[in-house]
Amino acid sequence: MKTIRVITKHINIFMKIKNYILTLTALLFSLSIAAQSNRNRTLINAALHGWEYEIRAGFNIGGTLPQPFPEEIRSIDSYTPTLSVSIEGNMTKWLGVKQRWGIITGIRLENKGMRTKATVKNYGMEIIGSDGNRLKGNWTGGVRTKVQNSYLTMPVLAAYKLNPRFTLKAGTYFSYLTGKDFSGHVYEGYLRENNPTGDKINFRNGAIATYDFSDDLRRFQWGVQLGADWKAFKHLKVYADLNWGANEIFKKDFETISFDMYTVYLNVGFGYAF
Prior knowledge:
Layout (H helix, E strand, L loop, with lengths): L1 H47 L2 E16 L6 E9 L3 E11 L5 E28 L5 E28 L4 E14 L2 E12 L6 E13 L7 E12 L4 E10 L15 E13 L1
Antiparallel strand pairs: 1-3, 1-11, 2-4, 3-4, 4-5, 5-6, 5-7, 6-9, 7-8, 9-10, 10-11
């Protein structure tokens, strides 16, 4: 009899635990359904009031370009875009009854990069010797450059719906530099120390000297953004945006390179609108 009572007691405990688990599962399921329902109602309510939310993923292709093209660069011998991705979350407020005009803003994490090979003459340069000392002057010969920068970017754009599927955008963007690399090496040429008529230092037969201007990059950048969206399906969009830098990439007191350089990139990708 004692054994039966013990077994019965354990069965009762098991049944209570089972009931608790079933009750908790049902409660969590109900909360999930309610949360999903609330989210759907929130999105529907936002859409009715002219708000649209979107996430995007794409890639950048372009480069850091001198403007205008300087006489020091005699030829661009090669150009290779690097893997430069972007992830963005943005929101659009459509205005008026017809909601054809809107304002877009958001946050974008992105990389911008390239690799180039050029032949130059009297190109401002500060090389780093094998002993770590820096030598400044004018370089004539080959230059390899690697640029790979990361940015936190906020676009502020005006949007216009040409039709339910096609939207044009124009405005500005503001970027903060979060990761930086502007470096490379020189080869097969010579450096005139300090000025174009200074002492000549030759680099031949495979000899190179490195340079690194990463610390001279400007933290804050801004520019013009122009683009278009095409709604392929109800939620899926395809987009293309041209981003053209308006301020020079190097700090104001940087004088080694004698001409200004700006970022010019085309950002292409897909978006999902909620």
